[in-house]
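Module 6 notes. Inverse folding takes a fixed backbone as the condition and produces residue identities as the prediction. Think of it as a translation problem where the source language is geometry and the target language is the twenty amino acids. Below is one complete input and output pair. Work through it position by position during the lab.
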């Protein structure tokens, strides 16, 4: 089982929340097939920061990430409830990797595209929800350490 661990000053971890580096792109088959027919689908993944959020059912990416990576719509919509409202949002397929962690990559994982409102920097463009977290044992230590261990 692979694992990932990082430490921050407790005040930074409290302010910024638990984060993980993410490489995101269109799914591998879309990249391969796109090259064959001359479509411009970026083959190099985009490096972004993901916020780990146990309160989110879904993994969410911002519309800017969807546009840059040219993610493919799955045809499904997800019902997302926030403290402010409930809405239907489109679902896309993405290839998500966790560089420098050894954690398993997820090729074809669904992501929901929603504008991510942020109050303070540093910025994040992805929220890792329980759909991915169910694969991990996550430990958030208020003393400044976050660790992830794969369950399978």
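Target side of the pair, the amino acids:
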């Amino acid at each position: 089982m692979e694992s990932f661990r990082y430490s921050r000053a407790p005040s930074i971890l409290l302010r910024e929340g638990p984060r993980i580096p993410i490489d995101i792109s269109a799914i591998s088959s879309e990249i391969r097939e796109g090259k064959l027919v001359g479509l411009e689908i970026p083959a190099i993944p985009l490096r972004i920061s993901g916020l780990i959020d146990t309160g989110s059912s879904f993994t969410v990416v911002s519309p800017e990430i969807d546009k840059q990576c040219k993610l493919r719509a799955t045809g499904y919509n997800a019902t997302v409830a926030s403290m402010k409202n409930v809405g239907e949002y489109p679902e896309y397929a993405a290839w998500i990797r966790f560089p420098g962690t050894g954690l398993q990559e997820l090729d074809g994982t669904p992501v929901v595209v929603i504008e991510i409102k942020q109050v303070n920097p540093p910025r994040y463009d992805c929220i890792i929800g329980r759909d991915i977290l169910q694969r991990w044992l996550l430990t958030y230590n208020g003393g400044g350490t976050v660790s992830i261990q794969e369950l399978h």
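Reference fact for the lab report: Strands lie at 3-7, 19-25, 46-52, 60-61, 72-81, 86-97, 106-113, 126-128, 136-141, 145-150.
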